[in-house]
Every structure is written in structure tokens, then in C-alpha cells.
Amino acid sequence: MTDTAVQPVHRHAPDWLILSIACVAQFMVVLDVSIVNVALPSIQRDLHFSVSGVQWVVNAYVLTFAGFLLLGGRAADLFGRRSVYLTGVAIFTIASIGAGFAESTSQMVAVRALQGFGGAILSPATLTIIVTTFHGPRLPKAIGAWSAVAGAGGAVGTLLGGILTGELSWRWIFYINVPIGIVAFIAASMYLREMRNSNATQKLDITGATLITASLGSLIYGIVNTTTYGWTSSTTLSWIIAAVIGLIVFAFWEQKVASHPIMPFRLFKIPSLTSANIVMMLVGGAFFGMWYFLTFYLQGVLHYSALRAGFAFAPMAVAIIIGAQISSRILQKTGIRPLLFVGTTMATLGFFWLSLIHPDSTYFTGVMLPACTCALAMGLLFSPLATAATSGIERSDAGVASGLLNTARQVGGSLALAALATIATSQSNSFASPFSSAAQTSGYQRAFQISAGITLLAFFGSWLMPKNAGLASNAAPALVE
By three-state DSSP, how is residue 454 classified? Predict the structure, then answer.
């Protein structure tokens, strides 16, 4: 949000209903990220994805979501919260129908990318609705409710994904979005009044959003295909070189050409924001991989049903919520850096513990305890990183700073998942029987070992954080998805 004037329109709906409209859509977006994980093995079998290719069901969504997230935030300012909300809901719902009916790998990847684009438009609009509706002491409470719904979406997603996949079909994890989307669209059409910045003159940096998304997609595609062509093949090198050129062009465009860049590089002059984004990109990469590999380990090696796997993830979701509550309550007493040190250390130990799994591991000691250690660490890191990313900046840049942190998490997750899945597949392929439980487990072990190394880098990256980060009186509010 910016400090420019907002042109209000009289609403005919109570505030609780406006808050509900915002929270329902945010719940749907977050739900879709977590609900897919448990269904991945079923999707892989039915649509004949390769072992490494199935990650595109996740990455196609995350890439377009991350690439267009900042663009969606600016669109709400320019075109109005109601228009952007309705557009995002419509795109997301239509794409969900397409994902449910997908009959091939290419169809699934295409509609998942469209879903991510819809989510990138919709998610910032939900926050804009809250900020333009609530003021004074009511605003933190409204944002708290919005954040709680987002956390609930992640927790419910794993459980609901297991139930729908196990009792009906993986296609229902996408169909479930349709009634939610229809209700949200009708409610917004009837009760949500338009608000936009009356002085907004910014232009949408569509070129910048397209460049960063295409460049990252090219890089990930090149990494994924190393299992087929090898790292030094002309095919792999061509995709990686194209990605590097695209990123260079993106940086030049943002700094020299774009009048209203989607990624304002001037913000990276702030040490707390820069270090927060570095740490978030690293830990985001490690945690994305954890859900992915545990899904295949539980169902492929331990032979859990989708329903049982969904329930197996429930303690981890609770651990994230507990960690977030603890860090938010003690942050003012401890400061940011101690929480970052504790969180990254716990994550490193947790991932190393996970790397000790074997084909006959028990759920309690081999999976739940180490995974909950990682999940608790993830919760501990959320609030201090959000606070660090938005401290010491102008209040009008709070939304952009929060968007950068979210983008760092999504991009880090996509890149790390591509690399880790490729490495795990290569490790499994080194066995005489690459699809045996021993071979698959060996690949997951290697992925978790590298994840421990990534979170260890995040620990050292935490030392870049200024000691007084987040203590400035002009710290902007941390508005993080």
C-alpha cells in the first residue's frame, strides 16, 4: 500500500463480512499450495509424470505465483480492490476446473501455471481489502485473523488432501476450490465496494514480471533435465545460459528502464531487508523440499495410503503454528538475531536427523520427531524475518518489502526443489534397481543432507542481520502472506 489518497465508497456490508470475503479467498490460495503435496504420487501415476517431472505440478504454480505477486499488489492500487479480487477469483477457479480435468502432463502444468497467476493477483488484493477497510486498533486484529486463516489453510490442506485423494480422487483437490471460488465471487460482487488510490499514476511492470518468471522457469527446466541430458550437455547449458541472460536483462530493465519497477533494487541498500531475504530464500528452499520428499517417502517407501499420509503431516502443521506463536510473543524481548540463530540451528539439526531415515524407519522416531523439529524451526523464523524485512523502511514501501520476502521464499523453494529432486533422482539411479525402496530412500537421504547444508548457510547468513534490526521506531508493519 502507498500513502496516496484512497477514494472510498460507502459500503453496505458490516466489517465482519468484508473480512470474511478477504479471508475466504486467502484460505483458498494457501490451501491449494499444501493440498497438492499428498496427491503428488497419485497424480504422477495417473498422468505418467517422470520421477523428476512431477515437481512441475508444484513449480508451475509457485513460479507464476512468485513472478507476478508484486504485480498483483500494484494492480489492486491501480484498478481497485474489487475488480482485481473478482478477476483473481475467476482465473483461479477456472484454472482449478482445468486442473481437475487434466489428462496429460502438459495440460496439468499449463493450468497449474494459470492457477499461480490467479493466486498472484488474488492474494495481494485480499490484504488490500483489509488495509483499506480497517483502521486504528482494529487493523492489527484484522491482519491477525487474515494470517491465522492463511496458517489454517496450510494445516488443513495436508489433511484434506489426504482425505480427498484417498476417499475420492486426486482430482477433487482441485474441484474443492470451485464452490469456494463461486461463493467468494458472488459475495464480493454483492457486498464489496470499489476502492482505489485516486492519485495512483503507476504503470504495471508487466515486462519485468514476465522476464523474471521466464528466466527462473528456464533455469529450473535446465536443472530438471540434467537427469536426462547431463550437466554439460548443450541442451542443459542452453537453458541455463538463456536463464542467466534473462536475469541480466531483468536487472537492467528494473534499474535503468522501468519507470515503476516491480522489484525496486533501492530497497536492497537496507541491510536488514537484504539479509532477511537471503535467509528466507535459503530456508524456503529447504522447507519446500521437505514436504515434497516426505510425501513420496511415506507413500512410496512406507506404503502409507494418501489418507494416512495426510494425517501423518498434521503434527508438523501444528508445530509450525506453535513456533509462530512463540516467536511472535518473545520477539520484542529477544530481538531478531537470536531467534534466527535458534531457528536455523534447529532446522539444520532437524534435516540432518531426517537424513538418517531408512526403508524400515518408524513414523514416530524416523519421520515425525525430526520433521516436527524442522516445522517448529520454520514457525520460529517466520515473525523475525517478516519484521526484519519491513523494519527501517518507509511505511509506503511496507507492502513492496513484504512482497519481496514472499517472492524470495517462493523462488528459493522452486530453485531448491528443482536441484534437490534432480540430485535425489541421480542418487537413486546409481542403484541397480533405481525404483526399489533402498534406492528411493537413498535419494531422499541425500536431499535431506543437502537441505541441512542449506539451513546451515542460512545460520551463517543470519550473522549479516544488524543487531538492532526491527527495533527502529519507524518500523513498518510486517504484512506477510
Answer: helix
What is residue 361's predicted lDDT score, i.e. its pLDDT? 92
In angstroms, the CA 45 to CA 41 distance is 6
Q: Give the distance from CA 48 to its chain's centroid.
A: 26
The contacts found for 403-407 with CB under 8 angstroms, 24 or more apart, are 403/69, 403/70, 403/73, 403/124, 404/70, 404/263, 404/267, 404/273, 404/277, 405/276, 405/277, 405/280, 405/480, 406/66, 406/69, 406/480, 406/481, 407/66, 407/69, 407/70, 407/263
What would the pLDDT profile of 376-392 be if each residue is shown by its tens digit? 998 888 778 877 876 76
The count of other CB atoms within 10 Å of the CB of residue 445 is 19
Backbone angles phi, psi at 13, to 5 degrees: -130, 145
Q: Which CATH number does the domain 10-203 belong to among 3.40.718.10, 2.40.10.10, 3.40.50.720, 1.20.1250.20?
A: 1.20.1250.20
CA pair distance 430, 257, nearest whole angstrom: 48
CB distance 122 to 71 below 8 Å: no
- As a whole number of angstroms, the distance between CA 85 and CA 119 comes to 10
pLDDT above 90 (res 262): no
Residues 213-253: pLDDT tens digits? 888 888 877 887 776 777 788 888 898 899 899 989 988 99
The CATH architecture assigned to 264-481 reads: Up-down Bundle (1.20)
Question: Which residue ranges make up each domain of the chain?
Answer: 10-203, 206-259, 264-481
Q: Which residue, among 77, 72, 101, has the nearest Cα to 87 in the 3D structure?
A: 72
Out of 21-35, 77-91, 124-138, pick the least confident: 124-138
**Residues 95-120: what's their mean pLDDT?**
92
Distance of alpha carbon 148 from alpha carbon 141, whole angstroms: 10
Residue 5 is predicted with a pLDDT of 41
Please provide residue 335's backbone torsions phi and psi, each rounded to the nearest 5 degrees.
Answer: 85, 175
pTM to 2 decimal places: 0.79
DSSP 8-state secondary structure symbol assigned to residue 302: S
Strand, helix or coil at 443?
Answer: helix
Nearest to 470 by CA among 281, 272, 323: 272
Amino acid of residue 282 = L
The per-residue pLDDT for range 444-474, each reduced to its tens digit, is: 999 999 999 999 999 999 998 887 765 544 4
